[in-house]
Known about the structure:
- It is a single chain.
- The protein has 16 helices and eleven strands.
- It has an eleven-stranded mixed β-sheet, sandwiched between helices.
- The model has no long low-confidence stretch (mean pLDDT 94).
- It is of the alpha/beta class.
- It has helices at residues 11-19, 25-38, 49-61, 106-113, 156-163, 180-186, 220-230, 245-248, 277-292, 308-323, 342-353, 356-369, 374-398, 421-426, 432-437, 465-479; strands at 44-47, 75-79, 117-122, 169-174, 189-192, 212-217, 264-268, 296-300, 401-405, 441-449, 452-459.
- The protein has a domain at 6-245: Amidase signature (AS) domain (Amidase signature (AS) enzymes), CATH 3.90.1300.10.
- Helix 5 (156-163) packs parallel to helix 6 (180-186), helix 10 (308-323) packs across helix 12 (356-369) and helix 10 (308-323) crosses helix 13.
- The site of glutamine has 13 residues, from loops.
Amino acid sequence: MEIMDMRGLTAVDVVAGIKNGDISCEELISRIYERIDRSELNCYITLNRDEAIEEAIMVDRNRGAYRAKKLLGVPVAIKDCISTAGIQTTCASKILTGYVPPYDATVIEALKREGAIIIGKTNMDEFCMGTSTETSYYGPTLNPHDHTRVPGGSSGGSAAAVSAGEAILALGSDTGGSIRCPASFCGVVGLKPTYGLVSRYGLIAYANSLEQIGPLTTNVRDAALLLEVISAKDERDSTQVKIASNSRSNYVFKDGYGDVKGLRIGVCREFLEGVAPEVEEAVWNAIYSFEELGASYEEMSLKYLKYALAAYYIIAMSEASSNLARFDGLRYGLRLDVDADWHTTFSRIRGEGFGEEVKRRIILGTYALSAGYYGRYYLKALKVRTLIKREFDAALRYYDILAMPTMPCVAFKLGERIKDPLSLYLADVNTVPVNLAGLPSISVPCGACNGLPVGLQLVSGQFEEDKIINAAIAYESNLRRDV
Ligand code: GLN
């Protein structure tokens, strides 16, 4: 089979095609790199070209012996905050430029075990801090649907790569929306797993209590397949929840998926506040479509949601200020020839190595954790977090899933918000509550406004990934209007 257009190709197709000899893995990988070479989008920081092509040749030679591998020969793009042995990993920061990890993250080991091929490391907001991929030291990534607009963030390179056919699958990380926001802006599927499902070993930490690694794909079935692979058990992440193997099969793709008869959907009013009218309309149309397929919906309210954004930013910045203390220029990355005492050297390196947004957050986080303010800000934010979690849990005992717009707007113009950090933080209003509560959620494309994709977010209870995957498949296979 001649590989004509990568954009129509799913991981499920690739695996089947390689196994039965219809697709040459070497040709597929070369075509991916040709696309990347021609692209203006700036999706990648580092490419893994030589190794990837060598591995593709091995896959073609041994496809018989490798039959059991779930991702045989599938080209995967990896967000640059996930450690890859032998491949530079920068978090899109000057301070980590040149850092080559000596080990693979657990999710990378899992991908390799299942025969996936790593294409390269994708662009992102520096240390995952942002909503637009504009805080990268390596320059912004462009939105594939409109090159004058942002791809969303912080996993903007991963989402844009999948959307533009520069990878078939991608991994991102989501602390407060970083998988779902770029999925929404680039018109792809993004899934944030339940906190504790996927090992974070080898993920360079921004805010440990909030983040998870997850899939960015062109379709829901591929997201389920990738999630199945990366949620492998790992003793090295003590926050990975030990769940029984029968509930692990909850997020393994099942052929019966796509039936939403009797499904109860909660539509929370607070998630519709301040949403652009054309985005709200697209989301309501999606909800009506679920109704046509036999689900029912009800409007409801979550009264603590209005505190979620403030609580999130206090917690995320506090954790970041402590996590980023390890970047001292002595152990990793950037080195400067400073002839001074340790304090001066440390300040000079951090002053030069970190970008403005990262410094802003370290300062605010340090402030929120300092004596006298700890109780007033950090502890209070933790209490709000508990209230939000309880409120979600109660709602999800009654409703199977909640539905809302992923983002309150479509992709905005490059440069439009970067000078005003608060306007960027506000864009996260619908994504951060889910991280505070540790719940799984998915963003699926639900139409477009003036050619720009809109994302529908579905949320379910802890470890109930099967419910959102099932509903997203129903929507995608029956009703999805491609953008
Ligand atoms: N935009 C949010 C932030 O800047 C979320 C980022 C993320 O999920 N990593 O913190």
